[in-house]
Amino acid sequence: MKTLVTGGGGFLGSHLVERLEAAGHEVFVSRRADYDLTKREDADRLFRDAQPQRVFHVAGEVGGIGANRANPGRFWYANLMMGAHVLEFSREHELDKLVIVGTVCAYPKFTPVPFREDDLWNGYPEETNAPYGVAKKSILVGAQSYREQYGLDSIFLLPANLYGPRDNFNLKTSHVIPDLIRKMLESRDRVVLWGDGSPTREFLYVEDCVDGLVLAADRYDGAEPVNLGTGDEISIRELAELIAELTGFEGEIEWDTSMPNGQPRRSLDASRARALFGFEAHTPLREGLERTIAWYREHAGAVAPA
């Protein structure tokens, strides 16, 4: 099948491209250097060049709490426009299937744990990442509207926080796991972490997420959003202690409580994905972290500077 992966050169996208190519698909990889999907003319050119039957919309402008606080307008605009353009040209090219990757940041700040898809609209997202989360939620509305009016088979998936080899280890924009790994491998005395360590998160290994995307593309055709997760919740403090153990860090962990914690708790109910298309995450957090740390040790010299 001729398959387009937007953001195919990025963290999640590169793993997805490898899986699709191994399965025999003809994959067209969209990278921002070649196609700026915030621009309509670039999105139009991409679809004309790729002529896809199926699209995985993985591209996004993302980052940790610091990046979200520094770029709220950009994150809202870029993610909204990319999604809108992909929807419109998917309609024009009469795709067989559009798979859209959403974000757990779309959930309300005080969603009951575990997060269930029916709670998605029961409040406003946590403030530090609300522009990004709201933009992604708007794409869900667009996908459902295009399905209703034009018959576009578009599905919307909500992965838990991702991690794994090839993650973004740039300390200015990284998420918590690569941030912790890099800091603890590069500093032997002290690392300073934001907040007080009490918030909880659920982490999904990137290869497990790819499993979910591929299964959903083949087996799910519904309008309702679907979570992809493990159901396992860990506090940021416990995560920091685990990564310290796995990296051999024996220095001091200092918590800067003047900085934000982010959303108080995050953990997903993935029962809908299991029921609808047989998704199960298989990689325990410790094992996934060991693989990620090993990858970073091998490739640290090629990672962007802090």
Rg computed from alpha carbons, rounded to a whole number of angstroms: 19 Å
Mean pLDDT: 95
Structural category is alpha/beta
Helix and strand string, N-terminal first? EHEHEHHEHEEHEEEHEEHEHH
Into which percentage range does the β-strand content fall? 15-25%
How many DSSP H or I helices? 10
Largest sheet: 6 strands, parallel
Helical content (DSSP H or I, runs of 4+): 40-55%
Strand order of the largest sheet: 2-1-3-4-5-10
Inertia-based shape? globular
Distance between the first and last residues' Cα: 40 Å
**Tally of strands:** 12
The low-confidence parts are none
Structure description:
- Helix content is 42%, strand content 16%.
- The chain has helices at 11-22, 40-50, 65-70, 72-92, 130-150, 176-186, 206-219, 236-247, 271-277, 285-299, and strands at 2-6, 26-30, 54-57, 97-101, 154-159, 161-163, 190-194, 200-201, 203-205, 226-228, 234-235, 252-256.
- The protein has a six-stranded parallel β-sheet, with helices on both faces. The protein has a two-stranded parallel sheet with strand order 6-9. A two-stranded parallel sheet has the order 7-12.
- α1 crosses α7 (206-219) and α8 packs across α10 (285-299).
Keywords:
globular, 306 residues, 10 helices, two-stranded parallel sheet, six-stranded parallel beta sheet, alpha/beta
In short:
The protein is an alpha/beta fold and 306 residues long. 42% of the residues lie in helices and 16% in strands.
How would the blueprint of this fold be written?
Elements: E1 2-6, H1 11-22, E2 26-30, H2 40-50, E3 54-57, H3 65-70, H4 72-92, E4 97-101, H5 130-150, E5 154-159, E6 161-163, H6 176-186, E7 190-194, E8 200-201, E9 203-205, H7 206-219, E10 226-228, E11 234-235, H8 236-247, E12 252-256, H9 271-277, H10 285-299
Parallel strand pairs: 1-2, 1-3, 3-4, 4-5, 5-10, 6-9, 7-12
Antiparallel strand pairs: 8-11
